[in-house]
Amino acid sequence: MNTEVKLSVLQSIYTNVLAESVFYYNKEGILNEIVKEKKEKSFVSGKGLVENFGIKYPEEVFTWCSEVFNCAVWDINKTEDGFLAIAEKCKLCDICKKLGAGMPCYIYCLNPMEGMVKGINSDIKFKVLETLWKGKKCKVEIIVNNDLK
Fold first, then answer.
1. Is 18 helix (H, G, I), strand (E, B) or coil?
2. 112 in Cβ contact with 46 (< 8 Å)
3. Domains with residue ranges and CATH for the chain
4. 5, 62, 116, 127: least buried by Cβ within 10 Å?
5. Is residue 124 a contact partner of residue 117, using CB atoms and an 8 Å limit?
């Protein structure tokens, strides 16, 4: 088995393990509590993650996550004061819906990415406009003040 196939297998297994954990957290009635706790941890760990992986710009958080996890592919659309990140498909969301699990968007994707973006600069605004769980796409608005551009 070549490296590319091994990576694809590992990405699929990882996504399924995350979906199963969301299923059980939701079943036990603790999903929202865990999402809240993990969000706080994401803001603490985000700075270290971006430093460890050499991520310097907010856009790179989205493109890096797309490349590494191969779960959601984020398109970056520049705006006057930042950018919109849009994903029209998400493997984790699809699996969770099939399992009848809870919403995975914040626990494993949006909150960790917000932590990383704010790890670059805590003044950057990270606003979730839509998720694939409830809508047709995942859409995040990033607003960078002029001093950060």
1. helix
2. yes
3. 3-148 (3.30.1380.20)
4. 5
5. yes
Q: What is the pLDDT of residues 9-62, one digit of tens each?
A: 999 999 999 999 999 999 999 999 999 999 999 989 999 999 999 999 999 999
Q: List, in sequence order, every residue forming a beta bridge with 41; answer none if it has no partner.
A: none
Q: Which two tokens stand for residue 130?
A: 């839509």
Instruction: Please check whether residue 55 is in contact with residue 64, taking contact to mean a CB–CB distance below 8 angstroms.
Output: yes
Q: Which amino acid is at 16?
A: N
- Return the closest-CA partner of residue 90 out of 137, 55, 33, 142: 137
**Per-residue DSSP letters for 53-117?**
HT--SHHHHHHHHHHHH-SB--EEEEETTEEEEEES-BHHHHHHHHHT----HIIIIIHHHHHHH
User: Would you say 57 and 139 are in contact if contact means Cβ atoms under 8 Å apart?
Assistant: no
Helices (H) and strands (E) in the chain, counts: 6, 4
